[in-house]
Amino acid sequence: MTYLIRNSASFILSILFCFIVIGCESNFRDVQKMGFAEFSPSGDADDINLKYTDSGRITANLISPKMLDYATVEFPFTEFPKGIHLTLFDKNGKQTYIDAKYAVSHKDTNLIDLQDNVKISNQNGELLETEQLYYDQKNEWFFTEKKFKFTSPKGVSYGEGIDFSKDFKKVNSQKISGEVQSE
């Protein structure tokens, strides 16, 4: 009889445990959903044409078919999933053109991450092509560790790793090869 009561108690406890687990499973999923923050943009814009000014002078013109703004996340950023065309203007009005099929602008660091078929050119006929390029907006400086191709009126060179000023006046490159005419 003691054996029967123990088996019955074990059976009842097993059944009770199963009900608790099944009941907790749905509650657990509800708790998970409450803790899950949906990662969605706080702003969404199509066909943008932004002009940045400093003391009444246009310093940049950003054109993009799509902009997603994530201003309310812990590390805010703006994403351009369909690419950008950016024109930078120096104090003398000279222009630098940047095209990329994808870009992310990080607000806290003032870095723009340009990706996928990145091309940067200027009015002097210089063109740099790479798959990823970073732009430090504060220091007006570009850099990458990826392979690149640099074309200028003097010739074509290839390399892996480069950093330069937005006007191409200061250039530091690594692992470079190609033919360039000397002055």
TrEMBL record:
Signal peptide: none annotated. Pfam families: LptC. This is LPS export ABC transporter periplasmic protein LptC. The gene is lptC. It comes from the Bacteria. It comes from Flavobacterium paronense.
